[in-house]
Specification:
7-stranded mixed sheet; Aspartate Aminotransferase, domain 2; alpha/beta; globular
C-alpha cells in the first residue's frame, strides 16, 4: 500500500509500539470496569491510578490535580464552560490565535451574559504585550492563552503572562496540548506563577486518541460538563476508557524522558527544511519567535495551500494546510490573519510538523518534490494568466 512520508505530527502522532503493548492487556483480558468492587475492577482502578501518577509526574503536577477526559477539546471545554458556570458573568479574555475548542466555548458564553475579549498577537504570533495589559485592565474573570500554537509552533511565555494576570483576580488557563512532549511542562512552577489549569492530550505525543486531561488547581471550582456517577472527582462522569488512559500515562512518561534528545533532533531537521524553503522563496511564518522544534508554517505567493497539499500528497508527502481541525474550512487561517498576514498569502499556508521517525533524507526528498511542484504550479498559473 502506498504510504506517504508523514509530516503532520501536530495533527496526530503514530502510536508508540511500547504504548500499544502496554494497552493491549486492557483491551483483552483486563476488561474490568474501574468502579467495580471485584478483582477485575480493582485491576482497572490500579491501572488508572498508575497512569494518573505518570501523567502527573510528566507534567509537574500532583496526581489529584489530573482529571482525565476524552481529549484536549473536552478538557478545554471543561475549563471554559465549567469555570464560567461557577462565576458571575463577566469578561473572558483569550488570545486571538486559540484553537477552536477554546475560541468556540468562549464565544458561546456570550449567550449567557459574558463578554469576549480577544488579545492581539504580533507578526510573529506572540501575544502583544500592550494589548495583553489593556485586556487585564478590563478585569477579565477568565483568561486562556495557549502555550504553543498548533499552526506556527510559536511559544508563549505563559508564566510571565499569568504573573501579570494575578492582580486581576482572573482564573488563568493554558492549552498545552501542542507543547506537552515537545518541551518541558511544569504545572507546579506554572501554578506558582498564576496558572490555574492546563490542558493535555495523549495522541500528540505517541499515545492513543481518546485520552486527555485537564490539570487543575483544586482550589478552582468547576461545574462538570458530564454529570452521572461522579467519576474523576465528580468533574467527568462516565466509565473510564482504561486502555486509552493507560496508553496516555505510558506515552507521557516515554516522551518526557526523551524530550531533550528529541528536541535537538527535530531542531536540526527543521533547520535543514527551512534553509531549503527559504532558498525556494517561501515565506516562513513566525520565524523570529521561539517555536516548537518540529513545526514550520510557510507559503509561496500565488500558490493555493490546499492545491499544494494535494499535489504533495500524490508525490508521497503528507503535510497540512493549516490545522487539521479546520481542514473543512476554505477560509484563510485565523491565526495568520491575526498575525497581520494578507489573506492572499494566508490562503497559501502549508504546515510541516516533523516527528522523531523523520530523517534528513526525507526532508531532502521533500524539498526536491516541493521545488518540482511549485515550478509546475507556477507554470500553470502563467499559462492561464
Amino acid at each position: 500500500m502506498f504510504a506517504p512520508v508523514y509530516f503532520d505530527h501536530n495533527a496526530t502522532t503514530p502510536l508508540d509500539p511500547r504504548v500499544l503493548e502496554g494497552m493491549l492487556p486492557y483491551l483483552r483480558e483486563q476488561y474490568g470496569n474501574a468502579s467495580s468492587r471485584h478483582e477485575y475492577g480493582r485491576a482497572a482502578r490500579r491501572a488508572i491510578d498508575e497512569a494518573r501518577q505518570r501523567v502527573a509526574f510528566a507534567s509537574g503536577a500532583h496526581p489529584t490535580e489530573v482529571v482525565f477526559t476524552s481529549g484536549g477539546s473536552e478538557a478545554n471545554n471543561l475549563f471554559i464552560k465549567g469555570a464560567a458556570a461557577c462565576r458571575a458573568p463577566g469578561r473572558v479574555a483569550i488570545s486571538a490565535i486559540e484553537h477552536p475548542c477554546v475560541r468556540e466555548p468562549a464565544k458561546a458564553l456570550q449567550r449567557t451574559g459574558w463578554k469576549l475579549r480577544e488579545i492581539a498577537v504580533d507578526e510573529d504570533c506572540r501575544v502583544a504585550d500592550a494589548d495583553f495589559r489593556a485586556a487585564l485592565a478590563e478585569k477579565p474573570v477568565l483568561v486562556s492563552v495557549m502555550m504553543a500554537n498548533n499552526e506556527t509552533g510559536a511559544v508563549q511565555d505563559v508564566a510571565a503572562l499569568a504573573a501579570q494576570a494575578k492582580s486581576s483576580g482572573a482564573w488563568f488557563h493554558t492549552d498545552a496540548v501542542q507543547a506537552f512532549g515537545k518541551r518541558r511542562v511544569d504545572f507546579r512552577a506554572l501554578n506558582g506563577a498564576g496558572v490555574h489549569a492546563l490542558t493535555l492530550s495523549a495522541h500528540k505525543l505517541g499515545g492513543p486518541k481518546g485520552a486527555g486531561a485537564l490539570v487543575v488547581d483544586k482550589r478552582v471550582e468547576l461545574q462538570p460538563l458530564i454529570a452521572g456517577g461522579g467519576h474523576e472527582r465528580g468533574l467527568r462522569s462516565g466509565t473510564e476508557n482504561v486502555a486509552a488512559i493507560v496508553g496516555f500515562g505510558l506515552a507521557a512518561e516515554l516522551a518526557t524522558a526523551q524530550i531533550d534528545a528529541r528536541s535537538r533532533q527535530l531542531e536540526i531537521l527543521r533547520s535543514e527544511l527551512e534553509a531549503g524553503l527559504a532558498a525556494q522563496g517561501a515565506t516562513i511564518f513566525g520565524r523570529a519567535a521561539e517555536r516548537l522544534p518540529n513545526t514550520s508554517y510557510f507559503a509561496f505567493a500565488g500558490i493555493e495551500g490546499e492545491t499544494l497539499v494535494g499535489k504533495l500528497d500524490r508525490a508521497g508527502f503528507a503535510v497540512a494546510a493549516g490545522a487539521a481541525c479546520s481542514s473543512a474550512n476554505p477560509e484563510p487561517s485565523q491565526v495568520l490573519l491575526a498575525m497581520g498576514v494578507p489573506s492572499s498569502l494566508a490562503r497559501g499556508a502549508v504546515r510541516v510538523s516533523l516527528g522523531i521517525d523523520n530523517d534528513a533524507v526525507q526532508v531532502s526528498d521533500f524539498l526536491a518534490a516541493l521545488n518540482t511542484t511549485i515550478l509546475q504550479l507556477k507554470g500553470l498559473t502563467a499559462l492561464t494568466s
